[in-house]
Amino acid sequence: MRVRLEDVARATGVSPKTVSRVLNEEPSVKEATRQKVLAAMESMNYRPSPAARGLAGSRSFLVAMLYDNNDNPASTYLAEIQDGVLDSCEAHRYSMMVCPLRMRGKDFVRRVDALVTDHHIDGVVLTPPLTDNRKLLARLQEHGVAYACISPVRHKDVVGVFMDEQKAASDLVTHLVGLGHRCIAHVVGIADHGASRWRQAGYKAALTAAGLAIDPQYIVQGGFTFGSGVVAARQLFTLKRRPTAIFAANDDMAAGVMWTANEIGLKVPRDLSVCGFDDTPMATQLWPSLTTVRQPSREMGRLAAQQLLLQLRGRGDARLVQIPYELQLRASTAAVPD
Amino acid sequence: MRVRLEDVARATGVSPKTVSRVLNEEPSVKEATRQKVLAAMESMNYRPSPAARGLAGSRSFLVAMLYDNNDNPASTYLAEIQDGVLDSCEAHRYSMMVCPLRMRGKDFVRRVDALVTDHHIDGVVLTPPLTDNRKLLARLQEHGVAYACISPVRHKDVVGVFMDEQKAASDLVTHLVGLGHRCIAHVVGIADHGASRWRQAGYKAALTAAGLAIDPQYIVQGGFTFGSGVVAARQLFTLKRRPTAIFAANDDMAAGVMWTANEIGLKVPRDLSVCGFDDTPMATQLWPSLTTVRQPSREMGRLAAQQLLLQLRGRGDARLVQIPYELQLRASTAAVPD
DNA sequence: AGCAAAAATGACAGCGCTGTCAAATTTCGA
DNA sequence: TCGAAATTTGACAGCGCTGTCATTTTTGCT
Question: Please, which pLDDT band fits residue B301 given cuts at 50, 70 and 90?
């Protein structure tokens, strides 16, 4: 029925162990032998049994993508990252599991234990805000499970991928300033997310650099959701000196801001400039199309997984890769008229 | 280190095989024994090794969610279904893998072979348009892999979940007629998708029922993407008798239509009513919010997986579940003024 | 009470691979 | 040319569980 390693061994005239060595790319196999075995594997269409490898060996060739689905119900962001991770996994014949975790709740870390123990996971890709959960990281280390992070807050001794979000946010706000805006508000994301911190810091840095004061009234809390953008915008619109531009910490909230602007009859960008962050598909689908910062989620997923696999396969130095950002200046921002 | 089945057996004073029986919910175990074993498992925090179970037994407790990622790059629709499938899997201690498949290309079916053979997959959840790929279904049957379908075209001998999309579309268009619209256009989805066929059929049925003629000019081809909605709308807007309402076969295309309306200065819903289908998150985030049909993707994923597991666990009759639709009448549709 | 049938349990091999360690082969310097 | 070291290969056990089949215990009936 199934072609087993033993079959390949017999066909090649070597021992099963040698075939195993070839399969696992172990060093001490004579080149001629390796070629013979490889050829036999190919022609017999041999495919190793993950179950057997996992059971017998110390590796499972399984990686998991972990995410917090308290704050992230089925977002495009995660779907794209997942696609990227999958890409890298397939390239190296690893399999991927997706594991939503509810970061709130006591059994959160135990879920990880279960996962890791059950499936013998070799490594995980962590998405924010899991990337900086101390307990989680500690637990993974205890289990000897490697991990790569996407946009982690702490960069020390971490492998993965990140973007200079603060600089990007700063550039974006500087662009608003360049358009003549002086009253620029900011809708903050979920408090303890790195993304919120960096984007807010960038906002402040740009204002300061432009010699503008930072008005606490112009900084309102949001939660990365469309709805929270609506709430924040309503609050901002009641201010006596209404902002002429609003920088929302992500596209969803920016969409909420634009929606609210429409609701009260403000015309974007004539009466109000709006910009977001992430460049989700929605950004180009809104009217007017949204000025934002491109964050290539899929590529980030791919790179993070790539670094993780580098580590797992003992192939040289995995590192924290920086990925460039890109401003997307579109129709939702314009010069302030006077 | 790890708690094994044997450890539980020793602690309980029974043979490993009996513990195995309890684990697999086999019938012939005395209730008292079962309870003892269950208690021991619990207190020892025993978790079976999926690798060992897969290797030794005939089941892997693994299901895969298959989708075609040629036409579906990282959509919310799939992400939600995935969430739902995951829900059901976890409820029954099954694991899930996600498997993008490129339906174009020769090795498409071989990818499935690989998947199934490699991981010994017990069953798969199929999403459109995979649900009706004859070759795929045949191959799965050959492999003895059970499957459940989400919105399959053919309903005969199929397990899974579906909605009466034709009726829903018809209701929606009837609603437009009720608002006084007589020139109602339709943007069709990808040609061979069931969704496209049903929605178009519903459109036609509603017009016919209302005694309105079906004008081929008012039916334009789209591809389920925002961009294709834009293209379709531009085409419709050049017509001498411009439609007063456009029913797009999904929300993405409806968003494209609305975007294009904005582009040429048409005000929705004053100058044009627009409606979509699916009720993606975007529907409420557009301005004006989109009239559409609610399709509970997550619930559908959950139900499909549930039926699949019913089948896998030999628990009675899995079937094709019908799920009710729900019209979401929002701000993008209004009475035609005269 | 006694026996056949049914129910419950156990012994044992083996799923397909890898880790350990020993054996065979090759390489290389003197 | 020979021996020690390095390289390459192989034998074998066992990972944690389940399938098969044998054995023991219980049940139901006369």
Answer: very high
Q: Which of B86, B114, B255 sits opposite A100 (nearest CB)?
A: B86
Q: Which residue of A has its CA nearest to B261?
A: A287
* Inter-chain CB proximity B79 and A74 less than 8 Å: yes
Q: Using an 8 Å Cβ cutoff, are A166 and A322 in contact? A: no
Checking if the pLDDT of B214 tops 70, the result is yes
Indicate if CB(A240) is under 7 A from strand C.
Answer: no
For residue range B42-67, what is the model confidence (pLDDT) as tens digits? 999 999 999 999 999 999 999 999 99
A17: which 2 tokens? 């162990």
Judging contacts by C-beta atoms under 8 Å, the chain A residues touching residue B279 are none
| DSSP β-ladder status, B146-150 and B95-101 | unpaired
Across the A/B interface, how many CB contacts are shorter than 8 Å? 114
Q: What is the C-alpha to C-alpha distance for residues A97 and A121, in angstroms, rounded to an integer?
A: 9
> Hey, how many other C-beta atoms are within 10 angstroms of the C-beta on B135?
11
Q: 């969610």: which residue's tokens? A: B65
- Whether A220 has a pLDDT exceeding 70, the answer reads yes
Candidates B49, B54, B66; CA nearest to B2 is B49
Using an 8 Å CB-CB cutoff, list chain B residues near A59: none
Residue B180 in this model has a pLDDT that exceeds 90: yes
CA distance A249 to A218: 13
Sheet containing strand B95-101, edge to edge, reads A320-323, A160-163, A146-150, A123-126, A62-68, A95-101, B95-101, B62-68, B123-126, B146-150, B160-163, B320-323
The confidence band for B109, taking pLDDT boundaries of 50, 70 and 90, is confident
∠ CA(A67), CA(A69), CA(A72), 5° rounding? 95
B315: buried, middle or exposed (CB in 10 Å: 19+, 13-18, 0-12)? exposed
> Strand, helix or coil at B74?
coil
Would you call A117 and B2 a contact, using CB atoms and an 8 Å cutoff? yes
Which residues on A lie below 8 Å from B265 (Cβ)?
none
B115-154 pLDDT per residue, tens: 888 999 999 999 999 999 999 999 999 899 999 999 999 9
Task: Give all domains of chain B, ordered by start, each with its CATH number.
Answer: 5-48 (1.10.260.40), 62-163+298-325 (3.40.50.2300), 165-295 (3.40.50.2300)
Instruction: Give the pairing type, strands A62-68 and A123-126.
Output: parallel
Residue A252: closest C-alpha in chain B: B285
Distance CA(A298)–CA(A85), nearest Å, equals 8
- Which nucleotide lies at the shortest CA–C1' distance from B56? C15
Residues near chain D (nucleic strand), Cβ < 7 A? A 13-18, 21, 27-30, 32-33, 52, 55-56; B 1-2, 4-6, 16-17, 20, 23-24, 46, 48-49, 52-53, 55-59
